[in-house]
Please model this.
Amino acid sequence: MLIILITAIIFVILSSILGLVTITAMRRTVNKIRYNKLDKYRELFRQKIDDILNTPDERLLKEFKFRPGSIKWKAIEDVLLKRLDEDRYRERIIEIFSILGYKSYYQELLDSRLNSRRLVAIERTGRLKIEEQTEKLIALLENKNQEISTASIIALSRMGNQEALEGILERLPQILKKGNISQRIILTSLSSFGDKFTDNFIRYAEKTEDKDSLLLILDTLSNISSEKAIETAIKNLRHEDPEVRVKALKILINSGKDVIIKNIRETIVKLLYDPHWAVRFHALKLIHSTKNTDFIKHIGQLLFDSKWQVRVQSAQTLASMGDSSLEIFLNALSHNDKFVRDAICEEIEKSGYVNKLIENLLYGNGEKRIKSKKIIKIMFESGFTTPFKESVHFHEIIDLIGESP
Model:
């Protein structure tokens, strides 16, 4: 009896496995046939699409009106979508999509109960810029399903109109608090609206009381790099929150305007001594981006900063200023503490300033040559000889500074 039972169980298991293998094989065969047909129709329609795009005669479109969801319907859609990003044809393709019924089809699909279908409809609604569905997409931002809400904000950014942007901004604090959409996607979506909406972002930054929303908008303005945002950035340099000050500095860094620094000199000096290292770091990056030497003594002080990130950025900023930094580096290397001297030697080495020192030693004259020689000698004494040994002028350097190799 037991043997019969075991035999029956084995038979059932083997039958189940065989059934699964058979079903899988059949699915693969069916899908292969479908994809082969799809490829064939894509190639066929691809050859005809140029005539359709370049000819306003709508009668040419009659042969492309297929049943929604069919292979031919999918094939012509794929061909048109591939050409959608070409500026010269974008409006014409969107018009064709409307004539062939794709727009109305996806509008109906937005109300589907199946999330898989709804996701496709949301994506197409954005790509085809079906603006009459903007309000529905805005409502979907608050959908509990993460995929739906994420797809909706991306679709709205592709829509790129005023209504879409305002809809996102009005709900921004709630969206951030809910955490259903990642901040990276929100930032990318907002940034894609472009600089033509800079005024909208600025107005929002000035009126919002939500810190997280302000941070995101300042990041957006930094990505857009519009000169209109400079005044907003300057105002936020005095914000009580260090994160906001950092975001404001990033906007100014991306602007690359030296005149900005000259107009807010006192503010920049305060930021160089800010209690938060990230603010000091970005204040240095701002100066670095403009090569402004007005703050050189303050930058020299930051070579001794408690945070290595600030020390590195300080050295890089000084290195970018060329010969103007010679005295600052020399004074810093005169420090009694060996640990401090070694740290500065390391930053000089990493920043590439060694090349400037070698150039001055070999071809410079006067104070430039004297100061460069002193710095190189200190670096040798501290054991930082590698970049000099790697130089083709190593033996000349040795002779000039009076060191033995």
